[in-house]
Amino acid sequence: MYPGLACHLLGIQSQPGLERSPFLGAIFEGFVAAEILKSQVSHGKRKELYWFRDQQGLEVDFLVPRANARFWAVEVKAAKTVSSSMAGPLMKLERAADGRAIRRVVVHRKARMQTDMTALARGIEALSMERFAEEINAEGA
């Protein structure tokens, strides 16, 4: 669902209202999904966006196929400040990926005065939504 429509249907009418909403995380995740799909369509690619969950309960928000049998594993957090604990599912996914080429990313909202933090854990990047959108578009999703 598109974030604007979701906010309208939930009666969220302002940024402060969204900040207080228990649906902020789900709305932000929907926004990230929409940006990924928008990038794919604008680059003439097939719309492909997957969610990952294994039998042990490991979940990752999105798997985004890329060129040359690579993919991005994306964990979405509505927080403005990221911590290494947010990288947990992506760290576990590395073990399950059998050596496949994966770019592991935590996408988060950016605080007004925050500088971009890129290294969250070994092999895992933290990208603000703005930076993520730039990179996914630059690679031609």
Question: Mind explaining what this structure looks like?
Answer:
By secondary structure, this protein is an alpha/beta fold. Strand 1 (50-53) and strand 2 form a beta hairpin. The model has no long low-confidence stretch (mean pLDDT 85). It has five helices and six strands; from the N terminus they run αααβββαβββα. The chain has one domain: type ii restriction endonuclease, domain 2 (3-Layer(aba) Sandwich), CATH 3.40.1560. It has a six-stranded mixed β-sheet, with helices on both faces. It has helices at residues 3-10, 15-20, 24-42, 88-96, 129-138, and strands at 50-53, 59-65, 71-77, 102-108, 119-121, 124-128. The protein starts with a helix and ends with a helix.
Characterize this entry briefly:
It is built from five helices and six strands. The chain is of the alpha/beta class.
How is this fold's topology laid out?
Layout: H1 3-10, H2 15-20, H3 24-42, E1 50-53, E2 59-65, E3 71-77, H4 88-96, E4 102-108, E5 119-121, E6 124-128, H5 129-138
Parallel strand pairs: 3-4, 4-6
Antiparallel strand pairs: 1-2, 2-3, 5-6
Helix pairs in contact: 3-5
